[in-house]
Amino acid sequence: MGRRRTETPQQRTRRARAAVSAPGALLVAGAGADEAAGAGLGWVFVLTAAAAAALAALLCPRGRTWWALAAPPLVIALVAAGAQLLAGAGGSGGSTVTAVVHWALDTFPAMAAAEATAAAVLAGRALRAGRGRRACHA
User: Fold this and answer.
1) Backbone angles phi and psi of 35, in degrees to 5
2) What is the pTM of this model?
3) Where would I find the H helices in the chain?
């Protein structure tokens, strides 16, 4: 029987940084690409949000999978607001309330895609882990 290796604190820290920074960088790149195209946040942002959520769900440690479902809407909202503020979308002449409603409508598809993708990846991880335990005890 193989022995389970224990991780050092440095290895755990490196894994945690990768689980946060890689999906974050992917999401920022998608927002930047969509804003650079000039049409605001669109399908590129939605697709990169889903990919970032899947990556986060794959990289997160087993005991902390809850954040892979909890974090995407907040992170997507922050990245979208930042991207649209940097692109000057807030100065369209409307009120702040109108701008917030517009941002919420723009980011909802990305949030929904990210949540669905993260849930599917985490369900796959749970099923795969459960199958492995049953095979060992059969």
Assistant:
1) -70, -35
2) 0.77
3) 9-37, 43-59, 66-86, 96-137
Three-state SS at 104: helix
Confidence label for 114 from pLDDT (cuts 50, 70 and 90): very high
What is the rounded CA–CA span in Å between residue 60 and residue 67? 8
Among the listed residues 30, 19, 116, the one whose alpha carbon sits nearest the alpha carbon of residue 73 = 116
Tokens 């919420």 belong to 104
- Region label for 95, one of left (φ > 0), alpha (ψ between -120 and 50) or beta (otherwise): beta
Residue type, position 113, single letter:
A
pLDDT digits (tens, 9 = 90+) for 54-102: 999 998 887 888 888 899 999 999 998 888 788 775 555 667 778 778 7
Q: 135: pLDDT confidence band, cut at 50, 70 and 90?
A: very low
